[in-house]
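Q: What does the assembly look like in three dimensions?
Context provided by user:
Components: three
Sequences:
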Amino acid sequence: MSLARFLDLADFAAAEVRDLLALAERLQRHPQPQALAGRILGLVFLNPSLRTLASFQAGMARLGGASFVITPGQGTWALESRLGVRMDGSAAEHIREGLPVLASYCDALGIRAFAEGKDLAADLAESNFAAMAALVDKPLINLESAMNHPCQALADWKTLDDLAVPDRARFVLSWVPHPRALPLAVPAATVHMAAMRGHEVVVLRPEGFALPPAVMDKARAAARANGGSVTETDDRAAALRGATVIYAKEWGSTAHYGDAARDAELRTALLDWQVREQTFSSCAPGCHLMHCLPVRRNVAVADEVLDGPRSVVLREAHNRLVVQMAVLHRLLS
Amino acid sequence: MSLARFLDLADFAAAEVRDLLALAERLQRHPQPQALAGRILGLVFLNPSLRTLASFQAGMARLGGASFVITPGQGTWALESRLGVRMDGSAAEHIREGLPVLASYCDALGIRAFAEGKDLAADLAESNFAAMAALVDKPLINLESAMNHPCQALADWKTLDDLAVPDRARFVLSWVPHPRALPLAVPAATVHMAAMRGHEVVVLRPEGFALPPAVMDKARAAARANGGSVTETDDRAAALRGATVIYAKEWGSTAHYGDAARDAELRTALLDWQVREQTFSSCAPGCHLMHCLPVRRNVAVADEVLDGPRSVVLREAHNRLVVQMAVLHRLLS
Amino acid sequence: MSLARFLDLADFAAAEVRDLLALAERLQRHPQPQALAGRILGLVFLNPSLRTLASFQAGMARLGGASFVITPGQGTWALESRLGVRMDGSAAEHIREGLPVLASYCDALGIRAFAEGKDLAADLAESNFAAMAALVDKPLINLESAMNHPCQALADWKTLDDLAVPDRARFVLSWVPHPRALPLAVPAATVHMAAMRGHEVVVLRPEGFALPPAVMDKARAAARANGGSVTETDDRAAALRGATVIYAKEWGSTAHYGDAARDAELRTALLDWQVREQTFSSCAPGCHLMHCLPVRRNVAVADEVLDGPRSVVLREAHNRLVVQMAVLHRLLS
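A: Here is the predicted structure of the complete assembly.
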């Protein structure tokens, strides 16, 4: 398998994902410090980043390549993405010029562009990311879009491999509190990844926070193809019983998408959805706590869990580097 | 020809420019991925950048070198440039320390410092950039100063070569609208480049936006030496007839330089100077639209032109990388 | 000597420092452009930087390695460092996740984290930097902490070597004016370095600006071990007589630490502590002016001194690159 784009784990069969992870393992064991000599990765961040920013630069360097970082609006002109607009506002440059130009300077491009968080249908359609992707004629990596984060999902799959979590194990994606509404990219990518890996996936979330039907349907199709299942509930006791993994994640109300006031109202009553040690009382022995980071300590997850043996969040983050090197190798070598 | 500084296309004879462009072509056809191994380029941006920021980093990497980026005031102390001043304001560091120090860390330095836009005589004298250049004892590249942008001019020359635009063709530098007054660096560099290339150059601009006599005189001398001509007019119909290239560019009123209110008053009546498809009705067949980017769509140039076959703006931007690699090679190899 | 951490010059014997400086000299004379091929340095800046930012990137590149830069709050999530806190404020990520993750992407990490400037005891205890250092299981470099700046101290030691300043010479660390209270990191590192090098060290400062006893005691112990001495005075005439070096440095009132109003009140009466040419009238012939930069011209030091032959500030800054390459070589090769 050679890659032209890495935009969505759902673009690949489970066997192809396993191939990619096998390459990641090989590169860990047998480094190839010259594999991407002379190759250049452009990284465009329309939103903040820590892991992605550092790990892609480090990954290119470890493979002998180089990278440059562009953060529009911060030392670089703000970018307009709407079509047909009269550009007399603050944005000095349109993506229709900015992105093809950046693509022409590099061998592969990564783009991060979070959800707008106003119109759920528009975010589900990935209209913003798709418009940008259509402008790039080079290998392209989704560094997190409105509804996807394939690099995180791939790293999490590898983490489950590292921990020898069996395919059929119960994997609970649990909504957790946060001061404000966060995007659906990671929950959507996670439920799909866990379904593809064959898990008994349970999406545990309060009323008003159901994942969109399009996300659930796509994950269920992946589950059917790979021997797993995907269900959804707001019953914490039922969901957690026998779980081998709790994947904690914050997201905004889908019932009141884009309505910050209603969303805030809902979440004030949900602070006890925080993951604590007692959350694991009915889980399987050794149940793991996963989270994509950054995590709000003692809001989303308690110190006692993050600092204890259940937490594998640092391994997940390190695996970002490991699996992305495989993606870069496939795209560029 | 070896280079010590790349500050102004006017520092070179036309034959020397053609030599540099021939090197750029050779490096495109026969990459030299180790030519600048171990060499370091420092990039200092006192103003925003996208193309320059990305293309210089990519260019160094493609030649085996490395670069670092400094953006004063953004993770780095703000820089003072006035002499003799008592530094009790917000700037923590003076260019008299900052620039020699940065130069001592690298093998070549690039500096971007836009016009102040207050006093035309001071900006024409390039007093700010000259003060900085005098502090740097390493090969130096002008990444855009008050009145110059030699990297853009060189890329544009190559674009005209790529398109096989004949030396004697009519080249119209046309003022176009923008929400506010922009510097004269690109129009000044462009009129000079086109004159050096031997074109019949027409500067088309409204009353109040004439290019300064010093700029026009310098360009006319270059035209005389290279068989071309430079004229100026506010008559759009006359200027555009038979044009092979329209180079659209925004700039501020020179009659009211530094007077934002008077400038804004003038430009409200000039919105129809936007370049549209009908602008080309009396031009030569296949007349090209050039622009240095970033461009305000549907303010400076209409979508229909930027998205149509006349536009060569992406080629110009890509040529920034191509020609700058030749500049870096001459300065550093 | 191989290094695991470079956090404080006081962690080394004077002979070990001289070894490191000898390596720096060797690397200057015999470059090793592949010594750190494939190695990656992560640089985390919680505060602004110019010299450190540029020289560490350049130093890694000159040794064949690569680096990435993280500036939390600027394209990256703001970092929380307090333990046990409920993270419902603006910081999205805790150092307990952020730092181990970054460390896992690189081969060595550098961290800059200035003093909080509120509680002297907390800053003296380096509690903030120590908390971060404890989270990093890779070679670690202090890029300036609350009370230390070992890279600056090492560069200054080399500068004294370059200038052949004898061990027993009189070295005056002189307080100079600044618009506001600055941290104690450089004065503390400087007094210790000069004591270790065997100088007759005089700390010259106004009433209310005495260095903390812990700093002075540590420096005096170093002086005893290396044949020097450390005294403190507010008598300018007595201090400067016969001095071979004046090291000018700004710092905040220690008597009113964290009290900006009282500090400002004190310093209005101290503007004449600025170093001028006449300051050197009773010094030894050829007395040098040192400063770590950035320096406020005509506030801390007059133009006439910075632009004259006494000033060695540019050499000090260049030596940052030179000595840090030796540190990187020891940590990573």
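Follow-up: The two ends of chain C are 12 Å apart (CA to CA).
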